[in-house]
Design brief:
Blueprint (H helix, E strand, L loop, with lengths): L13 H12 L5 H8 L3 H13 L19 E9 L4 H12 L4 E6 L7 E7 L2 H10 L7 E8 L18
Antiparallel strand pairs: 1-3, 1-4, 2-3
Length: 167
């Protein structure tokens, strides 16, 4: 693999793509297990993983937890409208919600009546009401809030579609 420039799309070879595919399935593999699965010896495999990390392509490794077994059974999708569309207003909102552990995802969006879409995970409707009334609606600039609730996760994946990577 050639030197990778941080922040730009990269042309990765077959081994790099395979490493990424396997790590997306199970980031907890040891280097030996990973090298066995991708068909490389351990030293070159480790060098490639480190290069992918240094390039910012691998940004972290996480454990996926079962929400239901942890009692976090309610997922809400919240569309939030802002009163003013200024960089300062948006920055203040984003900074505030980034400190809320209930917020799993925050997207600045277009094509809707809202400016932001949040995905929030809480134990139940009471916890959601508390989160909404004590945190979200008290943020300066929030002018509208519309909530939807997830009934069932039909597709809930974290893996990126690597088939689009340049060869």
């Amino acid at each position: 693999m050639s030197a990778i420039d941080r922040g730009k799309p990269h042309a990765l070879d077959r081994s790099d793509r395979r490493i990424l595919e396997v790590l997306q399935e199970d980031a907890g593999l040891s280097n030996q297990e990973l090298s066995d699965r991708v068909g490389l010896s351990p030293s070159p495999c480790l060098r490639r993983v480190r290069a992918l990390e240094e390039a910012g392509i691998i940004v972290g490794r996480y454990a996926l937890l079962d929400r239901k077994l942890l009692g976090l059974e309610l997922t809400a999708l919240i569309h939030i409208g802002m009163d003013r569309h200024t960089p300062e207003r948006f920055a203040a909102f984003e900074e505030a919600v980034s400190g809320y552990p209930e917020v799993q995802h925050c997207y600045l969006i277009t094509g809707q009546a809202a400016d932001y879409l949040l995905q929030v995970v809480v134990p139940d409707m009471d916890a959601y009401q508390d989160f909404l009334l004590r945190r979200i609606t008290r943020l300066e600039g929030v002018s509208s809030v519309h909530s939807s609730f997830v009934l069932r996760r039909v597709i809930d994946r974290t893996a990126l579609p690597l088939g689009y990577l340049r060869k």
